[in-house]
Amino acid sequence: MSWVAFERDRIFARLKVHGDQPHRVPNDYPSEEKAVLAAYEFARELIAKETVAH
């Protein structure tokens, strides 16, 4: 599993997660680069869901 930390910014403030709480995403990727890109995509999806919900 990869660990992802959200940056504290205006978008982060709307998310219902604690800043110190890590988020796990699947890490079945052949390289660290692909795992990081997937983690960022996961974060973008969460942000998009929150943006649409508000």
Can you walk me through this structure?
The protein contains two helices and two strands, in the order E-H-E-H. With 54 residues, the chain is mainly α. It has one domain. The chain has a two-stranded antiparallel ribbon with strand order 1-2. The longest helix is centred in the last third of the chain and has 22 residues. The model has no long low-confidence stretch (mean pLDDT 70).
Brief characterization of the structure:
This protein is mainly alpha-helical. Helix content is 50%, strand content 11%.
Question: In terms of topology, how is this protein built?
Answer:
Elements: E1 2-4, H1 10-14, E2 23-25, H2 32-53
Antiparallel strand pairs: 1-2
